[in-house]
Amino acid sequence: MTRMKKPEILAPAGNMTCLQAALDAGADAVYLGLDAFNMRARAAANFTRDELPEAARRCRTRGVRLYLTLNSIIFEGEMPAAKELLEFARPHIDAAIVSDWGVIALCRKLGIPFHVSTQMSCSNSDAARFLKSQGASRIVLARECTLDEVAGIVRDSGVEIETFVHGAQCVAESGRCLLSHDAYGCSANRGECHQPCRRRFLITAVDRFTDRNGNPLHDADAAFEVTPHTVLSAKDLCSLPFIDKLAAAGIASFKIEGRARTPEYVATVVRAYRTAVDAVADGAYTPALANRLVSETKKVFHRDFATGLFYGRPGANQFTDKEDSAATTVKRHVGIVIDYFLKAKIAQVKIQDHPIRVGDTLQIQGQTTGVREFKVSSLRHDDEIPAVAERGTWVTFPAPRCRVGDKVFFIESIL
Prior knowledge:
Layout: E1 8-12, H1 16-25, E2 29-32, H2 52-62, E3 65-70, H3 79-89, E4 95-98, H4 101-110, E5 114-116, H5 125-133, E6 138-140, H6 147-157, E7 160-167, H7 179-184, E8 202-204, E9 223-225, E10 236-238, H8 243-248, E11 253-256, H9 263-281, H10 287-297, E12 305-306, E13 329-341, E14 346-351, E15 356-357, E16 361-366, E17 370-375, E18 388-389, E19 394-398, E20 407-413
Parallel strand pairs: 1-2, 1-11, 2-3, 3-4, 4-5, 5-6, 6-7, 7-11, 10-12
Antiparallel strand pairs: 7-10, 8-9, 13-14, 13-20, 14-19, 15-18, 16-17, 16-20
């Protein structure tokens, strides 16, 4: 029996801690942005040019591929800057994720492999074959494609296909939204989205009829808060319940959204999909395992989960009525690591905020450490054994490898 070729698990990285978390959790590839021309330009979710060589080194040490997002609208006069950025990145990346034909021409000229971004809205096999003829080595399909359509494009296009499997979904077609630009002059297509779709809305009365003096004929001051409030806020995608069907469709890469999300989100979600893909390949994926993995991903930031558009075009069930995260845990800042005793595997931590006790679940996060989660098994302060480590003190306890300056968080269940 021929074993299934495992789809690539493609993880987001908004900073070095997220990248390390993705590597440790089992990602096959990581995508990131630099200082311009990507869809997270507004968020603090990009690497500096000084950081890119180190990011590439860490990926190559693990045999993990690194992709650069360069997929925003490029205006007249900006192509020289885009060319300079690509030339800088070329030695460090395995491919660029692009959506502009001028940038595609640059990639071809510079010999940089390129993946066509979902921003290009490729949604049929004819378009995919044409993009392949122009040099695309992979296509990230439009998010509007159903599972049957994805399988057909995989079968008929002859090019690698990538789809999103987890994370935020945009209310607009393939993310090409104009709401933020119209409301604030900040274009989502330039990575500047202010996300007005995630907010509450009011219906206000407008009186179009006036008397001869121009006064309204009716009371036009009425305003009603829309319920549910977030009528334009799409649910998050979670493909874990049907990840085996996505794998069977022949999708080459499973993309996790979230370059603006936290390191614990990256670690938790990547680990869940790593477990799922490995289990599918081994013929061991079960509904019980799927449910357990979904519960794991619910611990970190998410909106209500849905199946995206894999099983049909948008409907009323695609929108969440919650404004905030539905995470089942929350992290609270404890303090920082001030020393680590390597042989004893003991961390010394300065308690700056939330106190800790034996049995608490902690996370340590850092640019080299990534994300490490564990339970406190004991506490010491010199020769004392405190029942609680209070704010303003320091304490030592057994911990996974971490570094001076790493941040320590208390993980609280809010079920």
